[in-house]
Amino acid sequence: MNLGNAVSYLRLENITKTFDGNAALGGVSLSLAKGEFVTILGPSGCGKTTLLNILSGVMTPDSGHLFLEGKDISLLPPEKRNFGMVFQNYALFPNLTVRDNIGYGLFAKPKKEANDRIDSLLNLTGLHGLDARYPLELSGGQRQRVALARALATNPAVLLLDEPLSALDAQVRMALGQELLRLQRETGITTVMVTHDQQEALALADRVVLMNDGRIVQAGDPGTLYAAPATPFAGDFIGHMNTVCMPALNNGVPSGIRFEEVRVAVPSEIALARPNTWVGQVMHSALMGSYYRVEILLNDFSTRIYADVPRASLEAPFARRDLVAVTLPGEKLLVWNEP
């Protein structure tokens, strides 16, 4: 989705929220374009769920404003916002069939209009033929599809997703994530998804908003957040980052380099002649599938470097106490001016 000239559709201005004297949100401002898919990413307790609850209307902010198409909806109750919501635990009615769960919010519509909408959503979400089943007769992935269809039934202005894939196993999570993205693209609905899963955020979103301690640390497209994290926290939370602070590298200014960008080789005259190269000792090597994660103690005896080394590049895995040449390529280093 091209957001270069996007006009603000949903806007948060300086949202704050405090619980028992503790700031859950410390002045969050954010604008979304119509049709944009945004993920709110961060560790537990960073404020992302509180932000989602304020968007939904379940909570009101202590200060700040929320605008939808220029209208201040900060104090509107949830039922008047027309926002769809999908929860981590599905929140389906166990005594209602798939069809009745999806159509729950359509009770005021004419029967034919409601049934046509339900049929359309059954097809859209791949649930056709399951409409007479009850939630307990469905798999986790199918239940989440029902929850998604129910949230879309009323043609909401915004779709809110609270960790919708976290209760599923890895294979189903990946498949349903791609299906969620397809549905979002087909419907064009503005979507905000909360997650703590970095890969999920990068794979699905037009834009990732990274939070910590109740504030936005960095926001941008997934490629930018991965390639150019603004702080050590951002670098380490999105992917895996070494933060190195040693006098012989960038005059001691903290620098970052991703595990996969570190070059590890058997010590040789050629290898040791490369810039930013040190001798180190392998402390641990773990097979991670297609690569080995290698922990190395450099010969200053204080700096530890982690490297993800492709299996295909090694004749044999590194063993504990092996001496290696470790290169931190200058063009891959990030230098931070703030902690």
From TrEMBL:
Cell membrane as UniProt keyword: yes
GO MF assignments: ATP binding; ATP hydrolysis activity
Classification via InterPro entries: AAA+_ATPase, ABC_SmlMolc_Importer, ABC_transporter-like_ATP-bd, ABC_transporter-like_CS, Mo/tungstate-bd_C_term_dom, P-loop_NTPase
UniProt KW Lyase keyword: no
Identification of the protein by name: ABC transporter ATP binding protein
A biological process from GO: quaternary ammonium group transport
Coiled-coil features, chain-numbered ranges: none
ABC transporter domain location: 10-238
Keywords noted in UniProt: ATP-binding, Cell inner membrane, Cell membrane, Membrane, Nucleotide-binding, Translocase, Transport
